[in-house]
Amino acid sequence: MGQLIALDRIVSVEPGRGATALRNVPQTLAIFDSHFPLRPVLPGVLVLGSMGELAAVLLREQTGRTWRLAGAERVRYRHFIQPGDQMRIEVDLKRLDDAEATLGATVTVDGRTVTSARTLRMVPQ
């Protein structure tokens, strides 16, 4: 998996159950220069990537293997994430076998759900 690039702090990891992490969204991210510069918004693909990164941390802790995001289903973007926000990312393990894992994920900001994914599909690298 390499080093963590999107998660600022892992809050908890419970193998077989789920994990929680925090990601701060600083104004200094280069993406804000071009992604709606008058009203900067964190791109949804980066939010989804943060969910996948936390899922990979959980699965690596449980299996000792490296995992990557292979797909996502029923992803809902409900509110914008802007500079200065702190994302709380939670993933819950639904199913795990040797070839694939499925998880659910939610991102909240200030207690409000901003993004959810009913299914994250992870595969070993």
Q: What count of helical segments does DSSP give?
A: 1
Percent helix, as a range, is 10-25%
The pLDDT mean sits at 94
Distance between the termini: 8 Å
- The CATH class turns out to be Alpha Beta
| CATH architectural arrangement | Roll
Number of strands: 6
Assign the CATH topology. Thiol Ester Dehydrase, Chain A
Radius of gyration: 14 Å
**Which sheet architecture does the biggest sheet show?**
6 strands, antiparallel
Q: Based on Cα principal axes, name the global outline.
A: elongated
Structural class: alpha+beta
Number of domains: 1
> Main sheet: which strands, in order across?
1-2-4-5-6-3
Oligomer: single chain
Give the gist of this structure.
By secondary structure, the protein is an alpha+beta fold.
Describe this structure in words.
The structure is a single chain. The protein is of the alpha+beta class and 125 residues long. It has one domain: Roll (Thiol Ester Dehydrase, Chain A), CATH 3.10.129.10. Helices cover 16% and strands 46% of the residues. The protein has one helix and six strands. Strands 1-2-4-5-6-3 form a six-stranded antiparallel beta sheet. A hairpin with a 3-residue loop joins β1 (9-14) and β2 (18-24). The longest helix has 20 residues, at 44-63. The chain is elongated. It starts with 8 loop residues before the first strand and ends with a strand. The mean pLDDT is 94.
